[in-house]
Amino acid sequence: MTITFNQEGFAETSGEIIVYCTDNQGIYSHSATEYVSEGGSLSSGSYLDAPPQPKQGFVIVRADNSWQYQSDHRGTYYSKETGEKVEHTALGELPENLTALAPLAEPCKWNGTAWVKDEAKIADNFTTTQTRLIANIDEHAAKIYSTWTRFESEYRERQAAAEAFKAANYEGECSRYISDFAQRARLDNKTATNLILTQAAGLEKLQVELANQRMRKYELKAPNLTLEQLQSIHDDIIKQMDNLMEAYQNG
């Protein structure tokens, strides 16, 4: 049965009819069979006239009571100003500040037709990274050194007392720095003296090696390094410093 509608858009009879539907943006989505009661009207977003055939790069929209083609460039693009990824969701022509071309992996800029290296930004990024890594090496060394020298005056006094007692062939009265340590470690004074001197020599050796590792920061100023090489040198220096700290703790 053919259903007819009056001038106000209300059905003059009841029955099923094929309609053409749009989504909430007014874009044609699909056709469907819809039941209409006498005196009723089509549901919102449904129309009786069929849309035109699909066309590449366009969507079909309902506007001014007719079907119209509208440019469709929805998708993922990149900002020409920042290189950031942008989800473009609006219909119509693509804004001039967007491009489908992905930026380079390194700092770059849009030259009007393509992405090209941004040499100034690359140089600035390199200098900033280099400065940060060198500062981190100094800070890491300072943190370790502060741990080692927390009781430095005590260590120096004990070492001086041990050197003096050893110079006296371990005879006579020894400093409490030695005797108290010997008592608590359950050692005789001579053994305690030699242990104090061994520990002092070990700490001095570690401090010298820590200083050597810290001075390796100048390797980061070698010419023609890449960012990856900068990071690799830095990471190795930090690793060697941590190994020294572990050796100190294992004492």
Describe this structure in words.
The protein has 251 residues and is of the alpha+beta class. The protein is 42% helix and 19% strand. It has helices at 119-148, 152-167, 176-185, 189-215, 227-249; strands spanning 15-22, 28-36, 46-47, 58-63, 66-71, 75-79, 85-88, 98-99, 108-110, 115-117. A three-stranded antiparallel beta sheet has the order 2-1-3, with no helix packed on it. The mean pLDDT is 93.
Task: Please specify the SSE layout and strand pairing.
Blueprint: E1 15-22, E2 28-36, E3 46-47, E4 58-63, E5 66-71, E6 75-79, E7 85-88, E8 98-99, E9 108-110, E10 115-117, H1 119-148, H2 152-167, H3 176-185, H4 189-215, H5 227-249
Antiparallel strand pairs: 1-2, 1-3, 4-5, 6-7, 6-8, 9-10
Helix pairs in contact: 1-4, 1-5, 2-4, 3-4, 4-5
Ends distance: 98 Å
Q: Which stretches are poorly predicted, pLDDT < 50 over at least 5 residues?
A: none
Main-sheet strand order equals 2-1-3
Mean pLDDT across every amino acid position: 93
Largest sheet: 3 strands, antiparallel
Q: What share of residues is helical?
A: 40-55%
State the shape: elongated
Count of alpha/pi helices: 5
Spell the H/E element sequence.
Answer: EEEEEEEEEEHHHHH
Strand segment count: 10
Structural class from helices and strands?
alpha+beta
**Which range does the strand content fall in?**
15-25%
Whole-angstrom Rg = 40 Å
